[in-house]
């Protein structure tokens, strides 16, 4: 396992930043694309979380690291999330904006949600993650605020799905009766 040249802590072989001090690590940089940001940094990936935050979250989820509010990585994560929420604030300025409809437009293929992610391309997996992320928002609110809106949102989504199915079935019946 490699060590950070700045603080001496162990770092993952594929990490681009030290989880303890935030030092950029040259071992994770691909020298063949000089002048290009390394893959996994905020400018080299989709989403508002930086590569550093993604590495930190990956380590927390895998159990390699604990969620530590005193770490540089946690501070970076809080900055990333804050910046993402600031972007969401601008969305609220548009009265008729429907976040769910934006998601449907971005995903394009609703069947992706049901597919096994192992058979999807990286782009399709990203689209699938968009839907799963949207569906997890109520849980994050509940965890953060001590509320219980997840059940209410789940019921509303079930209603939306049922109405969409009915609309598709009605459209299919009308198409069959007109021969189109």
How would you describe this protein?
53% of the residues lie in helices and 0% in strands. The protein is built from 5 helices and no strands. With 180 residues, it is mostly helical. Residues 27-44 have low confidence and may be disordered. The protein has helices at residues 51-62, 72-91, 99-107, 122-145, 149-178. The longest helix has 30 residues, at 149-178. Helix 3 packs antiparallel against helix 4 (122-145) and helix 4 packs across helix 5 (149-178). The termini are far apart. The chain is elongated. It has 2 domains: 9-94, no CATH class; 98-180, no CATH class.
Layout of secondary structure:
Blueprint lengths: L50 H12 L9 H20 L7 H9 L14 H24 L3 H30 L2
Helix pairs in contact: 1-2, 3-4, 4-5
Which terms summarize this structure?
2 domains, mainly alpha, 180 residues, 0% strand
Number of structural units classed as domains: 2
List the uncertain runs.
27-44
What best-fitting shape do the alpha-carbon axes yield?
A: elongated
The profile of the biggest β sheet is:
none
Number of strands: 0
Beta strand %: under 5%
Mean pLDDT across every amino acid position? 78
Q: Termini distance?
A: 63 Å
Report helical residue fraction.
40-55%
Summarize the structure.
The protein is an all-alpha fold and 180 residues long. 53% of the residues lie in helices and 0% in strands.
